[in-house]
TrEMBL record:
UniProt keyword Glycoprotein, yes or no: no
PANTHER family, per database record: UVRABC SYSTEM PROTEIN A (PTHR43152)
InterPro entries referenced in this protein's UniProt entry, alphabetically: ABC_transporter-like_ATP-bd, ABC_transporter-like_CS, ATP_grasp_subdomain_1, P-loop_NTPase, UvrA, UvrA_DNA-bd, UvrA_inter
NCBIfam families attached to this UniProt entry: PRK00349.1, uvra
Gene3D superfamilies: ABC transporter ATPase domain-like, ABC transporter ATPase like domain, ATP-grasp fold, A domain, P-loop containing nucleotide triphosphate hydrolases
Location of this chain's protein in the cell: Cytoplasm
UniProt main location, coarse: cytoplasm
Protein name: UvrABC system protein A
An annotated GO BP: nucleotide-excision repair
Length: 921
């Protein structure tokens, strides 16, 4: 392509970054451009590493040298020229944050406006009696008193001591000195000259009589002075005590927010009161996290067949000598009818509770209190005992995160927690129905405008079923990306290049149209929207398509098509063939029939509505339904977490179920998700799949290695000996940037090869160990063709479509879909899998239509080996290839949570109520 002089394009020349093969191309600006092609072909390299990273790098370079020294030096992509760049914003599919304090509301910044909304428009309601509490001005108090009937006799009192021990002699002496005459002690009136001697250890209430008055003309000034003095002495609180007449008694008044009946004082209404991240607002029990950790007896003693003497209590195996407690335990056993040799499963319920929670009669503390005490004493112990703990909603705030005073504030009928617990759609409807009067109308206008705007954008991107209080850690990659997309819609920027990574992930086909409309609204404002996507409807909606291929890894990196969709549909590329229907994924000819089930009873997790669900064993089951219908609640929170508990493993906040049958038929449950296979560059496909163990054996068996006496450990970059000691086998050195992310630079000693010179001298068939780590799976299969055990593992990686990845590719550079397929390959490498249950959440993420076919074959291969596979998926090809489908709905959030249809894909298609069935047709 010749050099472009067009101002309406981003012109890229000579792009050789990663696997790109010297590409030169023009990307049209101000259009919706889709980059497609097989996974690993170079789509993300073009979109993120060149267009986005170069835009960012140039921005950093435009800053002063002083400012640049505080920012990491961004790597310059390997490209000759990039012209026509505008500021770039990247919306990647980051795996959801692990910070327990991050919620949908805080990430979208809606919560900041909500805090001001409740602080400025909320009213306190007493937590005890539920009556409204309002602070009054001094003038308002005076007017309230003057409104009493003429002739009413009353006293103005200042509360000085409330339920406090002591004789209070100094206080009485001080009051006499200041010229006061009367006090009321415990409801009885005394002059200050004849106050009784108070008992030192009893609690007393003392109120000072500031003035005695009668309602009549001309008392306003004296009354105002007395009220001011009473409020000053009573620290903004006072009592009006009517004497005689029809309504004698006390009225509590205050310029603070204090309940007149219950005397409960409220703090000043500020936005900080509603922040669970500040001491003013956070619940004091859970510190604003909403959940607390507790010791779970079933994790402390998972094997009920063991006795105390057999090691039935796991923490005592390694941390405590059981002999220390033997005398007390024998005493406890006599009381409850067990010995130290009785299996824990035979204990009565009372004996079990006494063992774990203590018994005052025998002076036994209990296993849980002993562990809690040890945890308080030692940080190391604390870390070790975390494995025996579960988390559950905080007993004080019940998951609301806020202190009682914050929850006592309401706008109309809702407090902050009730508002953030509603679905976004319902919250939006509720805000639109609010009506304010007078001064509140002016205050509410800008706040309501901002809140309805932000919530409206979230509805536009298909997230109306989420709630603002939802923890970000529970969202899918697609959901968290669409949340950031919604906040960009609100920013109203123009002239920006937005780079998105598969925004359709987690969206049911029914909701795709709204996402496309959102991308269109960004583009129509005058922005370039560059989307890396495999989704057919999104590709078909694009103004311009760039297909990179023809295959993955080093077989990709070329532009196989560029132009409008009409031309793509006539092209001979892989995507063109699938869009035209020349190539397609055929459904299996027969469906397997189940002989056994796991049954979940009365499931009420999140939005699920008292479901009874049969999950067939030995089949591939697909759980589907519109976004927010309850798929993850059913499969992950209810089934997976309760299976983990059954197997004695930790599972935080398991779902609410009535019971579960058939778990004895499952030997192990494995969740294969898209989290990285490792958190550091040391982890790679070769180490994770154990391929590297075989390779090191081959190298240690070479003639040179045997001569030098090198064992397999010599060829590991994780241990001393063969590795480069300058970088400790990392191949790069971390440079700490203090308050900025760390920067990694290539090690100068080994030039990134990870090994020392002596180790690299050992070769096998002309290649050293570093050369082998640089090989792709395809190259390694040719190179190690004579090693059957190694070939078996390499063949499985090829089977899942990962021929193109390098054996030593750092785990941190793998996409979510690649990480998931590496995990599947490790399981496929096992010979037989009866009793194994695999759960996969959206495994088609990052896969081209062609690779989805490979994935389906791989999942069926797991089932052929005797395993059960449960897939949460929206992809119609995967649903069509399943033996059994459970379709949830009919809507999302509170409109979902029911089973709409269940059976084979054919039965789902025949069900008119199923939204999924309509798309399967």
């Amino acid at each position: 392509m010749t050099k472009s002089t067009n101002n309406h394009v981003i012109h890229i020349e000579g792009a050789r970054h990663h696997n790109l093969k010297d590409l030169t191309l023009d990307i049209p600006r101000d259009q919706l451009v889709v980059v497609c092609g097989p996974s690993g072909s170079g789509k993300s390299t073009l979109a993120f590493d060149i267009v986005y990273a170069e835009g960012q790098r140039r921005y950093v370079e435009s800053l002063s040298a002083y400012a640049r020294q505080f920012l990491p030096q961004m790597d310059k992509p390997d490209v000759d020229k990039v012209e026509g760049l505008s500021p770039a914003i990247s919306l990647e599919q980051q795996t959801a944050t692990r910070n327990p304090r991050s919620t949908v509301g805080t990430v979208t910044e809606v919560y900041d406006f909500l805090r001001v909304f409740f602080a400025r428009l909320g009213k306190f309601y007493c937590p005890e009696c539920g009556k409204p509490i309002e602070a009054q001005t001094t003038d308002a108090i005076v007017e309230t008193i003057l409104a009493k009937d003429p002739g009413t006799k009353f006293m103005i009192l200042a509360p000085l001591v409330e339920h406090q021990k002591g004789t209070h002699k100094d206080l009485f002496a001080k009051l006499r000195k200041e010229g006061f005459v009367r006090v009321r002690i415990g409801g009885t009136m005394y002059t200050l000259d004849d106050t009784p001697e108070l008992e030192k250890n009893k609690k007393h209430t003392i109120e000072l009589v500031v003035d005695r008055l009668v309602i009549k003309d001309g008392i306003k000034k004296r009354l105002a002075d007395s009220v001011e003095l009473a409020l000053e002495l009573g620290e903004e609180r006072m009592i009006v005590s009517v004497v005689g007449g029809e309504n004698p008694g006390d009225t509590f008044m205050s310029t603070l927010s204090t309940c007149p009946s219950c005397k409960i004082s409220m703090p000043r209404l500020t936005p900080q009161l509603f922040s669970f991240n500040s001491p003013q607002g956070a619940c004091q029990t859970c510190n604003g996290i909403g959940s607390v950790e507790y010791f779970e007896p079933d994790l402390i003693s998972p094997n009920k067949g063991l006795s105390l003497n057999d090691g039935g209590v796991i923490p005592w195996k390694s941390a405590y000598r059981q002999e220390q407690f033997a005398p007390q335990l024998k005493k406890l056993g006599k009381e409850y009818g067990f010995t130290l040799d009785t299996p824990l499963g035979e204990y009565s319920e009372k004996a079990w509770n006494a063992l774990f929670h203590g018994c005052s009669k025998t002076h036994w503390q209990g296993i849980v209190p002993i562990l809690e005490y040890g945890q308080q004493q030692s940080g190391v112990w604390d870390h070790w005992t975390a494995r025996f703990q579960q988390s559950r909603p905080c007993p004080s705030c019940h998951g609301a995160r806020l202190r009682p005073e914050a929850l006592a504030v309401r706008v109309a009928d809702k407090n902050m927690f009730e508002f953030v617990s509603m679905s976004i759609q319902r919250a939006l409807d509720w805000l639109n129905d609010l009506e304010f009067t007078g001064q509140e109308t002016l205050i509410s206008e800008p706040l309501l405008k901002e809140l309805t705007h932000k919530l409206g954008f979230m509805v536009n991107v298909g997230l109306e079923y989420l709630s603002l209080g939802r923890n970000m850690g529970t969202l899918s990659g697609g959901e968290s990306q669409r949340i950031r997309l919604a906040s960009q819609l609100g920013s109203g920027l123009v002239g920006v290049t937005y780079v998105l990574d598969e925004p359709s992930i987690g969206l049911h086909p029914r909701d795709n149209e709204r996402l496309i409309n959102t991308l269109r609204s960004l583009q129509s404002r005058g922005n370039t929207v560059l989307v890396v996507e495999h989704d057919e409807p999104t590709i078909l909606e694009a103004d311009h398509v760039i297909e990179i291929g023809p295959s993955s890894g080093w077989l990709g990196g070329e532009i196989v098509f560029q132009g409008p969709v009409k031309k793509l549909l006539k092209s001979d590329t892989l995507t063109g063939k699938y869009l035209r229907g020349d190539m397609f994924i055929a459904p299996p000819e027969t469906r397997r029939k189940a002989t056994d089930h796991i049954t979940l009873r009365k499931v009420e997790t999140n939005n699920l509505k008292d479901l009874d669900v049969d999950i067939p064993l030995g089949l591939m089951t697909c759980v589907t339904g519109v976004s927010g219908s309850g798929k993850s609640s059913l499969v992950m929170d209810s089934l997976y977490k309760h299976m983990q508990l059954y197997n004695g493993n930790k599972a935080n906040n398991p779902g609410k179920i009535g019971g579960i049958d058939g778990l004895d038929k499952v030997e192990k449950v494995i969740s294969i998700d898209q989290t990285p296979i490792g958190r550091t560059p040391r982890s790679n496909p070769a180490t994770y799949t154990k391929i590297f163990d075989e390779i090191r054996k081959i190298f240690s068996g070479s003639k040179e290695a045997r001569t030098r006496g090198y064992q397999p450990g010599r060829f590991s970059f994780n241990v001393k000996g063969g590795r480069c000691e300058a970088c400790k086998g990392d191949g790069q050195i971390r440079v700490e940037m203090h308050f900025l992310p760390d920067v990694y630079v290539t090690c100068e000693t080994c030039k990134g090869k990870r090994y020392n010179a002596q180790t690299l001298e050992v070769e096998y068939k002309g290649k050293n160990i570093a050369d082998v780590l640089d090989m792709t799976v395809r190259q390694a299969r040719e190179f190690f063709a004579n090693h059957p055990p190694l070939m078996r593992k390499l063949d499985v990686l090829a089977q899942v479509g990962l021929e193109y990845i390098q054996l030593g590719q750092p785990a941190t550079t793998l996409s979510g879909g690649e990480a998931q397929r590496i995990k599947i390959s490790r399981e496929l490498g096992k010979r037989n899998l009866p009793g194994a249950l695999y759960i996969l959440d959206e495994p088609t993420t990052g896969l081209h239509m062609h690779e989805v076919g490979k994935l389906i074959r791989v999942l069926h291969a797991l089932v052929e080996k005797g395993a059960t596979v449960i897939v949460i998926e929206h992809n119609t090809d995967v649903i069509n290839a399943s033996d059994h489908v459970i379709d949830l709905g009919p809507g999302g959030g509170e409109h979902g949570g029911r089973i709409v249809a269940s059976g084979t894909p054919e039965e789902i298609i025949a069900n008119p109520d199923s939204a999924t069935g309509q798309f399967l047709k």
